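Worked Example 4.2. Consider the chain below.
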Amino acid sequence: MLRSRLFAALVLTPLLAGCFASQGGESKESGDGKDGSRLRVALAFPPAERLSPYGADATILSRLGVAEGLTTMDANGAAAPALAQSWRQEDERTWVFALRDAAFQDGTDVTPSAVVNALTRATRARPAPAALFGVTLTAEADGERGVRVRTAEPDPILPLRLSSPGLAVFSGKAYGGDGGDGGNGGGDRVDPVGTATGPFELTKVDGASSATLDRFDAYWGGRAQASGIDARFVADGTARANALRTGEVDIAEAVPVAQAATLDRDTRHDTATTRTTSLLLNVSSGPFEDPKLRAAARAAVDTSVLAEGVYEGYADPGAGIYGPAVTWADGKRVKPVGRAGAGRAKGTSITLATYDNRPELPEVAQVLKQQLEKAGFGVELEVREYSRMESDALEGEFDAFVLARNTSVDTGDPVAVLSGDFTCDGGYNIAQLCDKDVDRAVAAAERTADPGERQDAAMTAEAEILGTDAVVPLVHQRVITGVGTSVRGVVLDPYERALVGTGTRR
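Applying the procedure from the previous section yields the following structure tokens:
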């Protein structure tokens, strides 16, 4: 099942001049100090699915403070209260969540029936939200303020799973019905305009160009300090940096490394993230069916050149699937097992592909092309916009693919990315890997409940995956966020789920 996730964008926007002048501006009341100014934000990835929470667009809704779920993820990667103020485990398959007093942005209350409806809709969506991959989940009301969630198999990370942006809770109006089980053909369509619970209410969306948000004064977590947000989706990284530098925007996300030096030091903030850029090799067809050629490709790659050259120090050389932002991983790392010896390329032709929504990736691919050619491969490079190549990548049309992947965005669980990306039934398996030893190791990790033991099992599974040479970790990225000097309270989130919060202001 193909699923659009994480990295979708539409039209590159080379210029931004004046585009924030007409919409919103400062709030009418901002001059008296009682209401904060509106925030002007430039986002890197335009909506690809009309802001559906079930795919890549879910993180847009969470980053702008629009939508939230029963739980959230704290700085340590653990589940923390959100719409649920507490929870308890009844048995290995059943959890009960106690709801706090909260309201939807359309004025209705957050009730157990509303939460049950939202979760049920998510389970029916096709493709399913990434956080529900391999999980069968049902929900029912438990008294006046509780929701009982059951899974078909034991799921020790369910509270963390429910923090996924793809499992945000919306009012019945979002689904085109009255909150019951009918009305939208199975839950695939969700309208987040005025139907979420976050501190900012989405009031208008202009396709893949812009979005307008107003403060939601009834937010359970307290009144936001900014009166609203005027967001623009600007795929061109130079344009985002220019807009910040000239004062047209207050916040510019994902500033390209090449533009970092053009910003004043006090306006650029780099954050270690859980995003790893990797070279994925198609093991099911083409030259990289041969493990010796995969080993040759891996041996040809010099990751230090990428970290210091392409990323200019805003990245660390690839150590594994998990990078430094996953703070526990380094001390638990296991040596890859079962690697083949490197063969000789002897002019073997391969197609290397990547996308240009993240400006560094084409440059990474160009450096890899040179390194692989030096090792004897003949390399044809293909670069497109991500939304125009994702389906080809998932169907195994390329021999090699350079991908920037957040290893924690879907659930926060270290095992989830292994299951989704590297198992036989994985829904985002660009490498087309299907290996019984890998599947066995990942399954063992999924069954492990104790957090420390689950981490150990994840690292054992990582070693099995790296041993296949289906993935070559290249760099662990630091994201650069441009923040105007008058702005305070921007959320610099290593998990890339949050950007603007109740304390963000100018």
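The chain has 13 helices and 17 strands. Residues 131 and 410 are 5 Å apart (CA to CA). Compare this with Example 4.1 before moving on.
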